[in-house]
Sequence to fold (244 residues):
Amino acid sequence: MNNMDNSDNQANSKLRSIFAFSVHLFTATGAVFGFLALLAVIQHQWRWMVVWMVASMMVDGLDGFLARRADTKTYAAKFDGALMDNIIDYFTYVVVPALFLYESDVLPPGWGIIGASAILLASAFQFSQTDAKTEDHFFTGFPSYWNIVAIYALVLGLNPWVNLVILMALVVLVFVPIKYVYPTRSTQLRTLTLSLIGILIVIGIWGLISYPYIPNWVIWVTFAIFGYYFGLSLWLTFKTRTKK
Fold:
């Protein structure tokens, strides 16, 4: 009987290990989507750039949940999922948008390399700080959502100098210790936040289908959702500090 139990346990452990390694493989596909986004930027195929950016963001949004379900720290302990995630995030959230800033005309002439360098340097510090992700599941400083910034710069068609001012303001916010909500991990208003993100994904897909003729309501609804996100982050930061 004990031999049968041990055999069942070994089989179950092997299946759990396969599942855990498959989650790491799923995380790694974000790098592939990032590379495809790079190719789209080089070819100035902005729609496909956005498609692959969104694909990489969806992987990033799901892999943490899957990793916890698979218990990758136990069943795939040889691989550091957090390190892999950070490497891929820097590539997809920073390097790809940096190339977009350089290749496109969303910034004033000659400022593309400066804008790209600014986000590359600021995010290198943001990713490497010891409290980049806090124990209570927040990001410290603006969490390098440069791919989202790039998408807005593309679809809004603002004056390049306005884009530059916004970009530099966000670079400064990387170093301002505001606690930004980690949507899939933070417990405060989590259900509402995830519901709004779901709406954002659906609206984003609609906007992508409509590009370059995106309805104004799509843009305003996404602004409202991001406004909620930043407002919640500021409120929780203030609330935490007033308790101390």
About this structure: The mean pLDDT is 86. The chain has two domains: 2-177, 181-244.
